[in-house]
Amino acid sequence: MKILVTGGAGYVGSFAVRYLVRTGQEVVVLDNLCQGHRGAVDEKLLVVGDIADTELVGRLLDEHRIEAVMHFAAATNVAESVEDPRYHYRNNTANTLGLLETMIDHDVRKIVFSSTAATYGATDEMPLREDAPKNPVCPYGYSKLAIEWMIQVFSHAYGLSYAILRYFNASGAAEDGSHGEWHKPETHLIPLIIEAVQGKRDRVEIYGSDYETKDGTCLRDYVHVEDLAQAHEIAITTCPEPGSTPGGRIMNIGTGGGNTVLEVVEAVEGVTGKKVPYTITGRRPGDPARLVASNDRLLELGWKPRFPNIEDVVRTAWEWHCKHPNGYDD
Length: 330
Fold this sequence. Notes:
Blueprint: E1 2-6, H1 11-22, E2 26-31, E3 46-48, H2 54-63, E4 68-71, H3 78-83, H4 85-105, E5 110-116, H5 139-158, E6 161-167, E7 169-171, H6 189-197, E8 204-207, E9 219-220, E10 222-224, H7 225-237, E11 248-253, E12 259-260, H8 261-272, E13 278-281, E14 290-291, H9 296-300, H10 310-323
Parallel strand pairs: 1-2, 1-4, 2-3, 4-5, 5-6, 6-11, 7-10, 8-13, 9-14
Antiparallel strand pairs: 9-12
Helix pairs in contact: 1-7, 2-4, 4-5, 6-8, 6-10, 8-10
């Protein structure tokens, strides 16, 4: 299959690209390198550009005879979405509308969309099933939920075939330490803890210790990025044919289990043999106590996570950070 991967030089996108190539798919990567990195993807596959440039997107679809799009390109910083929602709605929602229009105009009617558990928001239902109520607590979650709605409407109106994948906490790195997670600024828990262990930051802030969990800290479902990549390959190869009814699937990607913040701290200490400096502060607004995926739909398609334990996830992340202390800037 010939696949255009938007945002394919980013963290999850680049892992998906490598997995697709290993399984024999033909891939073209489109990334503006705002959050992606040249070093994360084979240079021969990379086209530097923005999905907002619909003329460029259309040309790539035609020149490479693209059959499907895997869409990762998005702004993902939750705090930033609160401070500057206009940017998130323009970059995520409006630009995806332009991408969908261009796909339809060029007769490309298959898409796998990188969505998020942030579409659920705060809820008491655990583990979260895909049909759970959607009550996002931040503009980032709303921007992604709006895209999900658009994709489903385009499926009904234009025969678009789709798979919507709602990530839980993407984590980890390649087992050999060759590729990993590198954000500027970093906001994800595991790399933040590792940076504290390495002395790159004074300490980690843990937001709240009075949640209804085993140790009072928030509990999240940490899914390894290689397992995420496998899920995308399964999603694209099992996508319904364009014009089918129903037109697609919505699936969570998570382990079905979870770990608290303090359990992640303990895992990092166990893997590194070093104490983690941290401070417990007040809760962040909108943080739910627990977020755990129901992954039955994906399991039914043959997906099985290779890294279900937090220690294995942390071990790969530690390997990456030790080998690449400056990430892709090395």
